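Lab notebook page, bench 4
Experiment: in silico fold of construct C2
Operator: M.H.
Input chain length: 191 residues
Purpose: comparison with the prior construct
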Amino acid sequence: MSSGFCTQCGSAVKEHIPEGDNRLRKVCSSCDFIHYENPKNVVGCLLEWQGKVLLCKRGIEPRHGYWTLPAGFMENGESTIDGAAREAYEEATAECEELRLFAVYNLPRISQVYIMFFGQLKDGFAKANEETLEVGLFNQSEIPWSELAFPVVTETLTRYYEMRDQRDRRVYCADIHSRPGAPVEIIRHPS
């Protein structure tokens, strides 16, 4: 059974376990090039201004019209922190200050790793951009919890409010397992 074509020579690619490996991979039937498929890294920011957090209402699918933190896929050639700052600017015209690593979330079901940073929203300024319908700064009681786009957004905000007043802020890590229509399962790792 063919699984596409080789990016090196154009021959058919077939799935099998290469010698010395333990996973099914796409391997070229002609030049034996192994096409590794690895998780995608998503980077984002939880930005604060005077005790409020920045949220963006998504203007694109998936979850069009739902609220999220500014985040998106990393680009080649950028660091995680640079990617998070870029996403904040692309989605909310927001400039970040004092970014530091906040949380790492593994989403094995969809092969994604979220790397979330915490920082300050420069001058409290944000406005909707091409991918965003609107932006807002929210106190904890104002957050539209039932209208959040993804479990990782809910988890990030929940951890932020639980950890906000701790002097010793550690990086938070968890695995988020969910299937459409099923309850979200979160496995938290000790920090």
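Observations: The chain has two domains: 2-35, 40-189. The two ends are 44 Å apart (CA to CA).
Next step: discuss at group meeting.
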